Every structure is written in structure tokens, then in C-alpha cells.
Amino acid sequence: MSDSPTGLSDYEAIAKVVQHYIDGAISGKGDDMKPAFHEDATIFGYVGPDLFAGPIQGLFEWNDENGPATDLEFRIASTHITGTIATVRLELDNWSGHRFTDVFNMLKVDGQWKIMNKVFHLHG
Which domains does the chain have, with CATH numbers? Predict the structure, then answer.
């Protein structure tokens, strides 16, 4: 662990991690997303009245079933870093016709940023 101030390299590294997630959404392949996530990551959010919750593998499977989102539009709305933790809010539109807001909790593990938890909101 380091007490050094957050540098531009951390923001760039986090953006690259998020890009793995986006690349997987666009390709429709869960395997393309996997490098962004810690192996023990989790996901939580509602799809209509139903809670979608559990190990991140559920996201990878959903993504494989959903297929490519080639018209996906996205932007990182915010990134907050404190030492070895970070939160990222991502806005996504036209993920196969749906709009999502994702919040990622991230941890710097062995010098690499990983998404530990994804919480999402599916807009109506």
C-alpha cells in the first residue's frame, strides 16, 4: 500500500479497466469483460421488479445471451479515487435498446485496478 497522492496514471489505468467492460458490451462476449473484474466480484440491480444479484459470472452470461451492443454510447460520468479504492459512475445508452447507470467499486489489487462490485440502475 502507498500513501502517495493519486496521479493521472491511476485515472488512466481505471479508464482502461472500464474500457474492457465496454469492449465486452460492444462485442457481446462476457470473456472480453472479464479482465475488468476481480474473480470474486459481485453484481446487484433491478431488472423490472426482479433483483439481479450474485457473482459477476451472471453478468458475463447475460452479456453472452444478449449479444453485441454495436450502437452503444457511453461516458464515464465521474471517477473518485482515495488511495487504493475508487468509485466510477458510468452512463450507457442503447445497450440493445436499454439505458443503464452503472456504479463500480474498485480496488487496487497487487498494483492493478479491478472492479470488485457493480451496482446498476436500468432506466425505464
Answer: 8-122 (3.10.450.50)
